[in-house]
Amino acid sequence: MSSDKISMPVWNEKHLRAATDAAGVALWAWNVDTDAITMDERAYDLWDVPKSEKHITFEILSRNIHPADLERVRSAFAATRAIVGAYEIDFRILFDGDIRWISARGQGDDADIADRTMFGIFLDVTQRKQAEEANELLAGEMSHRVKNLLTIATALTQFTSRSAATKEDMAHELTNRLMALGRAQDLIRPIPGRKSERALLGDLVSILLAPYDEREASVRIRVSVPKMNVGEMSSTTLALVLHELATNSAKYGSLSLASGTLDVSCNAHGDEVVVTWTERGGPPLKAPARLDGFGSKLVQRSMAAQLGGSIAFDWSEEGLVVTLIMSKDRLAR
User: Which strands sit side by side in the sheet containing 98-107, from one edge to the other?
Assistant: First the structure.
C-alpha cells in the first residue's frame, strides 16, 4: 500500500493577509503587562479609530463601546489573563451614529503567547446579529398572533352565541366570522406574489372589523373615513396595527360586551393622516403602568418605522381613545 503523504501548501504572510482580507478579519495583539494594544489597518477602520492614534489601550477603544455593554466587555477583557484556552465575546460599538456588532476572539494565557503578548481577531458580525434579532422578532410575532387568534376565536364564539337563535344559526354565523377573520389575516400577512386588491382605507378598516360586528347591533361598529388610497406596503402595516387594537378591544374593551361600540374616523391635515379609534360602552378600563407587552412594542415600532407616525392612548372613564398619526406619503406607498 502506498503511504504517500498529502502535500500541504505553505502559507506565507501575503497569502494569510489575502485570506484575512477576504474574510473581513481584523487583527489585534495585546501586551498583558503594559495593556498596549496593537491593531492592523482593518481594525482601526472597524473601531472607527484615527490611524494617527498610535498608543491604543482598552480605555481608548471603550469610548466606542455601547454603554449597555461596556462593563461586561471590561470585565471580560480583564479576565482573559486567567482564561485557559480559546475565548470569544460579542458586543456592540457605536459607529457614526449606528450600532455595529463586533466579535472578539483569541486565546487565553496558556497558549500562543510570545513576549508576553496575546493575539486574536475582531470580526464584524453585525449582519448575523441583525438576522438573529429578526428571527427572534418573527418568532415572537408568530407566537403572539397564535395566542391572539385563539383568544379571538373564543370571543367570536361568545359574540355569536348572544344573537344566534339555534345551533344551526350559530354555526352559520360563526363560520362567516371566522372566514372574515381569515380575510383580515391575509391583509396582515399577505400571500407572496399576490397583489392586494383592496386599496381604499375604508375597505381595509371594514374588512378588519367585520368579524367583530354583531347582527343585532346595527350601530355597534361605525366607520367614517374619506375615500383615500392605501399603498400595498403600508396596508399590511396598518392592518397589523388595527388588528392588534381590535384584538385588545375584544379581550378587554368595548367589543367584549354586547353594549359596547366602536367608532373609527379619519381626517387628513396637510402631510398627516389622523385615524381616531374611539371605544364606548365597554367595561371600566385602567391605564397600564407601562406599555411593554410584545403587542404594544410591535404596534409602536410599526407606526414609527413603516408609517412615519405615532400612536397615542387615552384611557378615559368613557372608554379608550387611540390616535394614529401617519405620514400621508408613507400611507400611499
Answer: 37-39, 25-31, 117-124, 98-107, 86-95
- Bridge partners (DSSP) listed for residue 91: 102
Q: What is the pLDDT of residues 177-217, one digit of tens each?
A: 667 666 656 665 655 555 555 468 888 888 888 877 765 54
Contact 265, 275 (CB under 8 A): yes
Judging by beta carbons within 10 Å of its beta carbon (0-12, 13-18, 19+), is residue 262 exposed, middle or buried? buried
Note the pLDDT tens digit of each residue in 87-106. 788 999 988 778 899 999 88
CA–CA separation, 88 and 106 (whole Å):
7
Which whole-number Å values give the CA distances from 252 to 30, 220, 261, 266, 285, in the listed order?
Answer: 59, 16, 13, 24, 8
What distances in angstroms separate CA 181 from CA 157, 238, 245, one per listed residue?
A: 13, 16, 14
Q: What is the pTM of this model?
A: 0.53
Q: Tell me how far apart the alpha carbons of residues 122 and 113 are, in angstroms, rounded to a whole number.
A: 18
> Band of the pLDDT at 152, cuts 50, 70, 90?
low
* Polymer length of the chain: 333
214 touches 162 (CB < 8 A): yes
In three state form, how does the secondary structure of the chain look? CCCCCCCCCCCCHHHHHHHHHHHCEEEEEEECCCCCEEECHHHHHHHCCCCCCCCECHHHHHCCECHHHHHHHHHHHHHHHHCCCEEEEEEEEEECCEEEEEEEEEECCCCCCECCEEEEEEEECHHHHHHHHHHHHHHHHHHHHHHHHHHHHHHHHHHHHHHCCCHHHHHHHHHHHHHHHHHHHHHHCCCCCCCCCCCEHHHHHHHHHHHHCCCCCCCCEEEECCCCECCHHHHHHHHHHHHHHHHHHHHHCHHHCCCCEEEEEEEEECCEEEEEEEEECCCCCCCCCCCCCHHHHHHHHHHHHCCCCEEEEEECCCCEEEEEEEEHHHHCC
CA angle, residues 226, 227, 228, in degrees to nearest 5:
100
